[in-house]
Amino acid sequence: MDARSLILSLSCLVLALTMLVYGILFIRRHRNYLLGVEWLIVAVSATNMLLFQAVGYPLGYEISMFLDAFSRGFGIPIITILGLMVVTRGFKPSALVDVLVFAISIPATFLLRLDVFAGVLPYFYVLMALLFAAYLIHFARLLLAHGERTQAVSVLLAMTGMLAIALIYDFYEIPGEATNVVLNFFNLALLTWSYLFASLYHAYSALACAKARAAPVS
């Protein structure tokens, strides 16, 4: 394994472990299955990319690409927003809603990857990233309103990085992309996503605690 593949493998491992840990925490501590399962899906995606980078496992690449399309098209801009609404809006999805959201998104991802959509797919992904960014701005405003300035700044920084990655992904190649060991797109993307998802967990927890403190005692 060359240095470039090693660094990419380590970045995949960081993302996989980040998503595994925080996905489990969302389920165990917050009973938020929308966010918990989506985080675990990204963990599976990163693990399969790790297998591809480390040992050249071709199926790992295909699985990772499908799950990447799932998350970029539906998991992040739709499922994650619904999950965040639990703490921002008091949304209480039933188990049926949780199941249906994923059940609809999976076949929709298969449709999304059809050749007929290849030309417009990059623009769709950017539109979804902008939708998600708009909600994160709202999320940060709520954090500020509840005195959670550090978490608000963290979310906004993570959002900025996420948007940069979304805009670069299909439209721009970093100079030296083919040879850069550390400063290549996928390495930067994996670490940016790791920070984003970790930041969202801590911000979610902070807002949940702040709202609990502010709630009147009956």
Describe the structure.
With 218 residues, this protein is mainly α. Helix content is 81%, strand content 0%. The protein has helices at 3-30, 33-55, 58-88, 95-112, 121-145, 149-169, 185-214. The longest helix has 31 residues, at 58-88. It is globular. The termini are far apart.
Summarize the structure.
The chain is mostly helical and 218 residues long. 81% of the residues lie in helices and 0% in strands. The longest helix is centred in the middle third of the chain and has 31 residues, at 58-88.
Mean pLDDT: 93
Runs with pLDDT <50, length 5+?
none
How much strand content do the residues show? under 5%
String of helices and strands:
HHHHHHH
Distance from first to last alpha carbon: 61 Å
Helix content: over 70%
**How many strands?**
0
CA-based gyration radius: 18 Å
Number of helices: 7
Give the CA-based shape. Answer: globular
